[in-house]
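TASK: fixed-backbone design
INPUT:
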């Protein structure tokens, strides 16, 4: 049945008048149809049943109306009292000369009672082009109707305040708030306006997850428990038409006031009851300012009427206009000066943009230049630790490797910050094991803590057969990066005592789990005066900390953004100066239950013994030191290696001889790896080609795969990662040499 056609919600058994019903007054209630008819009918039935019981002297009839249905019913005098959204109240009040409403609805969420509503502006989390209000001018926006308060008019006012007119926006009307969410999820719109509480309702019903979308123009009001993108206006009003007598109004008001939040009649509506009517005048002023119904100004004004009524004023205006014409020459000169200033400002803006682009390019180049020597440092240190040398020499190699890893961590922080500033940071959702992430962290930080004499532990709270054995769906690499930053700070700022990582299951529903990660230490703590700048970029506690401990000051700033990008609320902390610090965060993951494997509270895995391999590898590398490093790494597992200095030599070598694998640097003289791979693929589709790159930028890594390469390794080359690729293509030796 289409919207606007009202359906009598009365009991068929009572359609025939009886002696009892004949003595009762008829009270006709109209309710705004803002969701599906079946859903609203089911939700309102307990409420109507309550009103019938609370008003025994009245024969209550109720109907659901769309805005056009309300208009027809009012025209035919078919209603007595109405329950609508604030915008429809303004329209009906204006057209029917009504007074103030009787009561205002109130809601409760998280033990907070509210009697206001607002709008929520949202888009999909994968939508990279919409991050602020200005971006909505390039998007199609789904709304229920143009008469909706929270899902159109209030969000529109936020755009109006920054100078964006509604004619600049592309709206798609879809019916109701739920239809707006569906339109965005299905790709029929890039963004959506809904009233506050709708997204939370979808999440509570398990239809969407918080990580599926992002909020635009988010407002932080501690006293308001819903996601809010606009200012607040009063909730839905109950109001009576002018013909309703005062006795009926009082009886209805008393019945509404007696409803309590735990009453099923009101609870099923998502309401907490009613309170004395609030002031709806600010909403009226807002609608007038935006020239929206029912306060839009009529442009059709006749000249004759103006002349007869305002002759004196019109003559005065004409004289003033002539005066402005006389002053136009001076005004034009002033405008020329303003335009000249704007031109200079625009040139400065262009220069700033070029400088920002140059910064990104500089960081990319620095990545390549720094990673090249790092490759030799880390690889040589790894090889030195496996040789049969004096213990002191092995310790030196460990320190070299540790220093290089710290330098690599600083470089990665700079690159991540550059991506965040450019809006290019990606969250890569894939399956991973929590145990693997914890093992990697233990391998890195347990030796560092041991060197300082600290107790280092990790534990997962809960049953051994519980969440720590699940296969999680999320960005395990970014999770490890955030925990690495927190653990690194904990070890750095703790001189004695304990550093501990604790994982616990915070919530679990519909194959989605919220895991809480806590990193605590017994270190020096954080002074209260440093709290505000803790998560700011390039910021550390004070100058003395910078001198004593070093670092870029980017770790916590990047970690905070990563946590929010992964669906968390951010990083929280508690600290007392001199008594340690605890940082924690809660992140959502989808999960799959897999066969359990054991996990210890403190895991320090050793290097597995690598089985010797056999085969011929073509190494294409122009840097002599990197050639030596790669030869050492490959020789340590028993493979035969031939070296070429550039891509042209590699192409010729493969034309005349057979190789089981090609390891090729990206940037080389004469012929780079991309062109070399294209030529190799023209006559040899089978040989595996592995890219070696000192750049960690996603576009270069993706380009390597597009050109026909099979895999890529990022310098500095990790021996474990290299061996994992080798065993994919090279067989094990039958007998060890």
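OUTPUT:
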């Amino acid at each position: 049945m289409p919207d606007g056609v009202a359906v009598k919600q009365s009991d068929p058994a009572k359609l025939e008048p009886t002696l009892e019903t004949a003595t009762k007054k008829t009270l006709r209630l109209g309710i705004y149809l803002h969701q599906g008819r079946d859903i609203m009918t089911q939700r309102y039935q307990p409420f109507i049943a309550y009103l019938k019981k609370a008003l025994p002297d009245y024969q209550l009839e109720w109907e659901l109306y769309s805005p056009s249905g309300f208009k027809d019913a009012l025209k035919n005098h078919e209603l007595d009292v109405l329950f609508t959204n604030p915008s429809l109240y303004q329209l009906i009040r204006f057209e029917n000369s009504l007074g103030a409403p009787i009561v205002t609805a109130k809601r409760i969420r998280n033990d907070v009672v509210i009697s206001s509503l607002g709008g929520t502006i949202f888009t999909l989390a994968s939508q990279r082009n919409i991050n602020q209000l200005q971006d909505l001018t390039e998007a199609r926006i789904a709304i229920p109707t143009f008469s909706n308060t929270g899902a159109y008019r209030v969000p529109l006012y936020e755009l109006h305040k920054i100078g964006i007119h509604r004619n600049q926006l592309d709206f798609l009307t879809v019916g109701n708030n739920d239809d707006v969410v569906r339109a965005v999820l299905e790709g029929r719109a890039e963004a959506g306006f809904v009233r506050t509480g709708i997204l939370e309702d979808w999440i509570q019903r398990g239809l969407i997850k918080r990580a599926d979308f992002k909020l635009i123009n988010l407002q932080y009001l501690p006293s308001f428990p819903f996601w809010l993108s606009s200012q607040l206006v009063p909730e839905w009003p109950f109001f009576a038409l002018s013909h309703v007598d005062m006795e009926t109004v009082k009886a209805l008001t008393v019945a509404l006031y007696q409803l309590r939040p735990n009453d099923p009649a009101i609870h099923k509506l998502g309401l907490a009851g009613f309170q004395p009517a609030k002031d709806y005048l600010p909403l009226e002023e807002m609608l007038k300012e935006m020239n929206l119904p029912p306060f839009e100004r009529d442009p059709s004004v006749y000249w004759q009427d103006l002349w007869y009524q305002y002759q004196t004023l019109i003559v005065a205006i004409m004289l003033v206009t002539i005066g402005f014409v006389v002053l136009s020459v001076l005004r034009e000169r002033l405008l020329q000066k303003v335009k000249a200033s704007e031109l200079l400002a625009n040139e400065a803006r262009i220069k700033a943009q070029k400088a920002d682009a140059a910064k990104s390019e500089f960081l990319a180049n620095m990545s390549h230049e720094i990673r090249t020597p790092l490759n030799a440092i880390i690889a040589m240190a790894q090889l030195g630790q496996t040789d049969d040398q004096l213990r002191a020499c092995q310790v030196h190699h460990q320190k070299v490797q540790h220093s290089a890893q710290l330098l690599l961590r600083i470089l990665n922080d700079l690159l991540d910050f550059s991506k965040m500033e450019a809006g290019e940071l990606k969250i890569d959702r894939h399956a991973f094991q929590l145990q693997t992430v914890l093992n990697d962290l233990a391998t890195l930080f347990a030796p560092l803590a041991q060197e300082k004499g600290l107790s280092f532990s990790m534990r997962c709270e809960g049953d051994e057969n519980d969440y720590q054995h699940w296969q999680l769906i999320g960005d395990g690499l970014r999770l490890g990066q955030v925990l690495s930053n927190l653990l690194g700070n904990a070890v750095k700022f703790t001189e004695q005592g304990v550093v501990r990582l604790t994982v616990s299951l915070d919530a679990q529903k519909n194959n989605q789990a919220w895991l809480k990660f806590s990193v605590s230490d017994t270190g020096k703590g954080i002074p209260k005066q440093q709290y505000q700048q803790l998560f700011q970029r390039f910021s550390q506690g004070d100058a003395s900390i910078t001198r004593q401990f070093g670092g870029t000051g980017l770790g916590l700033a990047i970690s905070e953004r990563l946590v929010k990008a992964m669906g968390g609320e951010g990083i929280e902390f508690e600290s007392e100066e001199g008594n340690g610090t605890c940082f924690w965060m809660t992140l959502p993951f989808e999960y799959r239950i897999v066969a359990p494997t054991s996990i210890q509270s403190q895991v320090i895995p050793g290097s597995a013994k690598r089985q010797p391999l056999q085969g011929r590898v073509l190494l294409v590398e122009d840097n002599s030191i990197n050639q030596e490093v790669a030869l050492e790494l490959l020789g340590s597992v028993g493979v035969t290696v031939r070296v070429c200095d550039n891509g042209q030599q590699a192409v010729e070598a493969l034309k005349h001889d057979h190789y089981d694998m090609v390891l090729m640097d990206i940037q080389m003289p004469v012929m780079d790896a991309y062109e070399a791979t294209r030529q190799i693929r023209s006559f040899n589709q089978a040989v595996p080609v592995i890219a070696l790159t000192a750049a960690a930028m996603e576009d270069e890594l993706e380009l390597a795969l597009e050109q026909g390469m099979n895999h890529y390794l990022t310098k500095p080359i990790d021996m474990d990662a290299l061996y994992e690729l080798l065993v994919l293509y090279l067989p094990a030796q039958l007998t060890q040499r």
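COMMENT: The longest strand covers residues 581-593.
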